[in-house]
Amino acid sequence: MPIELDIGTLAQSLAYFIAAYTIVTLSLNLEAGFTGIPNFGKHLFVAAGAFVVASIGNRLSAYIVSVLYKDEILKLIQEDPLLSKRITEADIGSLWSMYADPLGNRDLDRIMDKFFAQHPELGILLFILILILAVAIGGLLGLLISYPALRLRGEYLAILLLAAAEMVVMAIGYYWKPLVGGTTGLFLPRYLAVFGQKVILGVTVLLILAAVAMYLYAQRIANSPAGRMMRAVRDDELAAASLGKDIAKVRRDVIIISSAMAALAGALIAIHTGSVVSTHYQRFSWTFIPWAMMIVGGVANNSGVVVGVAIIMILQKFVDIVKPMLAPVVPFDPVWLYQIGLGLVIILMLYMRPQGIIPEKPSRTVNFEEIFEDVLEDKVEDEQAKKMIREGRATP
Amino acid sequence: MAGQSTLYAMAVVALIIGIAIGYFAGAGNVTTTTVTQTQVQTETQIQTVTTTVVAGEGEVVTVTKTLPVTTTVTQTQTVQGQAPAAGLSGEVKIGVLLPLTGDLASYGEAARAAALLAEQDINAWLQAAGAPFTVKMVIEDTQTDPTVAQQKFDTLAAQGIKFMLGPMTSAEVSALKERADTQQILLISPSSTAPQLAIPDDFVFRFCPTDLIQGPAIAKVMQADGVEVVVALVRADDWGRGLIESSKEAFLEMVPNGVVEVIEYDPKNPNFAQQVAQLNDLVTKYMGEGKKVGVLLISFNEAVQVFQQADQYDTLKQVRWYGSDGTALLSEIVNDPVAGKFAAQVKFINPIFAAAKSNKYEDVNKRLTEELGRVPDTYAFAVYDAAWVVTLALMAVGDYDSVKVKEILPTTARIFYGTTGEIVLNEAGDRAFADYALWEVVETSPGQYEWVNVGMYKYASNSIEWYTG
Amino acid sequence: MVLNVQLFLDTMAYASVLGLLSMSLTLTYIVSRVPNFAHATFAAIGSYMVLIVVWLLGIYKTGPSWGVYYASLPLSFIVVGAVALLQYLIVLRPLAKKGISIDGLMIATLGIDIILVGLLNISADFLEEIFQQSPDKDLRKLVTYPRSGYLSSYEPTIMGVTASSILGPLLLVVSTVGFYLFLTRTKFGTAMRAAIENPQLAETLGINVNLVYSISWFIAGGLAGIAGVIMVMTTKLNPTMGWLLIVSVFAGSIVGGLGSLFWGAVGGLLIGFLEQFGVYYTQIILGALTGETVSLGNYRQVFSLGAIVVMLLVAPQGLASLNWGKILSRLGLRR
Question: Are A74 and A214 in a shared domain?
């Protein structure tokens, strides 16, 4: 069966997902890869950006517009035969509060879309304002999370973050209507009316620009003294502390920065989608997949992350496209191929190349671990004992 | 020091930017035509007229009638579209987005079987007509995850597909709406019911009635039984919440001093002990007040678990239970000895949009049942009908053009008599009305339980016609 | 409505499933130091063993029978134990030997989880195919929806109470006490404790640490399998049924502190009761305060997730780490 592909559409989709996942995975890598903070609740921080856009952004823009351009809004409502029946002049002052109700959200969305089509410049301004707000609140959330993160270590922290994320995104976000409309979610006004019908392409380009900027930023951090300090904290906290490094500050800064990055991605994903519903930010898609991308690409290596993201996304598209051809060959429903394949890829990757496709760059200072390994290899014969010494359960 | 790895990354970034620029450049070459269209928007409003008639000596009968009032607004709109492609030939693709894995996999599987059956039937028909093309269903799994749904939508769009059946949940529909509208790809969801997706003039059609129609049907059945207090156990998702909202509104309108109490449960709930206990408390409380109580269960196949747990409470067996299209005709209810017995005992009655028992319905039902090994749900029939309506509209247009098909889809649906009966779409592209068949669980022989069609709710007259015997 | 007896019985079955799972999860954690995300899916495999028993022993024709338990408890123990052992031997041990970090191992268990769920789905499809094509009408009814079914109709009752409500707590108590006796009274148990507490010393004493770890994984898997047998009597059979419970199981283990089997079992039980009775009484109290019906059933997970968050923030080492003597004497319950 020949498959015709519209390369433009395919490329646009790939570019969008690669850019979005690049930002999220880079931020995960800053925490987990460079600093050793196992963030298993990444989807909370991505969702945070989207939730800010939907819950605060929607209300804020409706409020600003209805106060500044009251007459125009009123005219838009009266011109529309569907809206004029439902919304009267008296409602104008409280337009922003209509977002709590799904039908109100739909009607308001209609007004706002028309308004921004007439005032694209205001749309851009509000878009920038909301984006900044999302990033700021993302950072604040990071600050909040950093307190327990400083006290808890390793797997306890991982489970805490996972539990907090599931609680906020899947339980509260999904059921509590005032946040993001509950089970059905909320539509977003089309702020970027400037792109016209090409709004998805436009936001994709913005996401690509953001991904490039985030990559350069992450590279700068990694190659700076701060980056070396992060790795020092990860590799040997005691040693780092004894050298006078403020570990708490390093860890806190990293969590704040990477939370803000994830929120930026979440906000842009929301604008790109045009609506926000909490099920969009599931742990499988926004925590597990970024971890898989990081492990495949290269832990503690920004370039590796980009490669990992690209490989997983392209592989996924490839599997989608060839799957129909495999259906007659495999004895079971081919939908399971992707899931089983993904699991196998991760485990095999960990086994064969745990450092990822592009391994971490060796730091230019003397590597304590290498010396340790050399000594261990030299002095201790028994494998079991070596393992125990490495794990810190025994002393040589 | 720019290492080797940085070079790799730069190459990838350059690739992405290159692709994006390439797309821009490519997009510039596509000739866009501007089509000016006159578009008719119809707003249908339901008006309830109540007349009081004095019949006989002092006997007062109230007749409530519901009349659809239609307003028509004509708008002139400019639509940007791509240059028309060459006519239909070869393999014409229709995308299908369904949850084949994940929470709703059971519905996805039935819908897939329906899509494939439609493909087979349509192609046989096209071949007999000597048409120059065949249709091909391209099926993708959305896992009920909006992110995955977007990925799969893109994959289908990249194959040049302009018509897609699905996705099934409202959350997925809203995640795809922006894409569908801007890329002019037609989505027909067989099962999304959320009222806020009722948006005129978009590229989303919905072939199931929204909750605003089923709600009154449920309320009417309860009112007919003289129920004063409704205690509802509701699946807390967009479907369940929307349905209870509209049922509640309709019921309180019909029974002004009635009471509706709502208990919600998480769709991922593994165990219903707590909810059933609360249900029992409320039913006991209102029965103690001497009210006639009815239990409304808005759930999917979790109903079996609910019945098994409710079977332990005697009070819950003394009231009638009412259901929705989520539980109508579920074979697991009648197959499970405990749940079946309980359902028969409480005369569990369910409306489901009919599927007007036509020969066509029976035929498709029979073949789908053979394929699946169970009775398919109505959403599967909606998928089957949607495939036909799209094909018919495509033939009328003579072109693989989603903008033109979108314009004539409502009229095409109107002239088509489907397995789900008449398909009338309202101004928002959603099913405008439907009659509801009422199915009840009955013990046909000792230990054997079956679904029996006991009546029909007529939307136009807001009345119930009971089948006797 | 001071105590709803039926709710108590239903909760006993559910909570003891969580107790068994939290306890066995704690065991794997003590041995390998990695939270195993695939643990609840182990229970799902156990549940499928019940389906196979109901099918092969013809119980679907004869109706409720103790045979369900007699056959599926040992079968689940062995099969799921073997799956857990394989996970340890094929994936976790080699990876740990290569020095993969705990984050990496956790991701590996997530990978195993999606592989297991995929394989379970394929097997479920395969079983369904067999049932559907059978000439036996009763067998065709066994799985009526894709990959799911309800098996609780096949369990017997004891004086009108479903067996799982009694058997579940019984199994939990027996396995907790049994484990305690095994660890303290048998030679192998002593060796096991030694190997877990100080592997190096145990090794020098001639204890085969590897063997001890492997057996621990086998037992942990087996207990998860037994939990699956009870679990399927309280919920819907489905390949992803483990995912519905994994959050609660982790909550149980965290509340128990991830360090002691006894406290793991207690933690699981507590979470089970919190999700049912905690929600139930919160509703009653809020209802009495507001004068309206309050329904919090859909926020069930908030209770267990909240328990994780609160526990980790207040006492990361769990209930086991609290000084109970001090608390009791403060409360005036003990001098």
Answer: yes
CA distance B444 to chain A (A): 37
Q: What residues in B contact A219, CB-CB < 8 Å? A: 6
Q: Residue B449 in contact with residue B334, Cβ under 8 Å?
A: yes
User: Within a domain: residue C17?
Assistant: yes
Q: How far is CA A194 from the centre of its chain?
A: 26
From the list B43, B175, B177, the residue facing A280 with the nearest CB is: B175
For residues B366 and B345, state if they share a domain. Answer: no
Nearest-neighbour CA in chain C from A91: distance (Å): 30
Do both B267 and B341 map to the same domain?
A: yes
Asked if A13 lies within 8 A of B151 by C-beta distance, the reply is yes
What contacts C173, CB < 8 A, 6 or more positions away?
A: none
State the complex-level ipTM: 0.88
| Whole-Å CA distances, B181 to A196, A257, B124, B173, B297 | 12, 35, 32, 11, 36
- For residue B67, being part of any structural domain is answered with no
Instruction: Find which of C39, C87, C110, C117 to mutate to test the A interface (most A CBs within 10 Å of its CB).
Output: C110
Q: Is residue C209 part of a domain?
A: yes
pLDDT tens, chain B, 469 aa long = 445 555 555 555 555 555 555 444 444 333 333 344 444 444 444 444 444 444 444 444 444 444 444 444 444 333 333 433 447 888 899 999 999 877 677 788 889 999 999 999 999 999 999 989 999 999 999 988 899 999 999 999 988 999 999 899 888 998 999 899 988 999 999 988 887 888 888 999 998 877 778 889 999 999 999 999 999 999 988 888 889 988 999 999 999 999 999 999 988 888 899 999 999 999 999 999 999 999 999 998 889 999 999 998 999 999 999 999 888 888 788 888 889 999 999 999 999 876 556 788 889 989 998 888 777 878 899 999 999 999 999 999 988 999 999 999 999 999 998 888 888 888 888 887 778 889 999 999 898 898 898 998 988 888 998 987 5
Provide the domain limits for residue A106.
7-352
Number of structural domains in chain B: 2
- CA A45 vs. chain centroid, Å, equals 7
Cβ contacts below 8 Å, chain B against chain C, sum to 117
- For residues A55 and A99, membership in a common domain is answered with yes
Contacts of A396 (CB under 8 A, 6+ apart): A376, A379, A380, A389
A315 and A393 share one domain: no
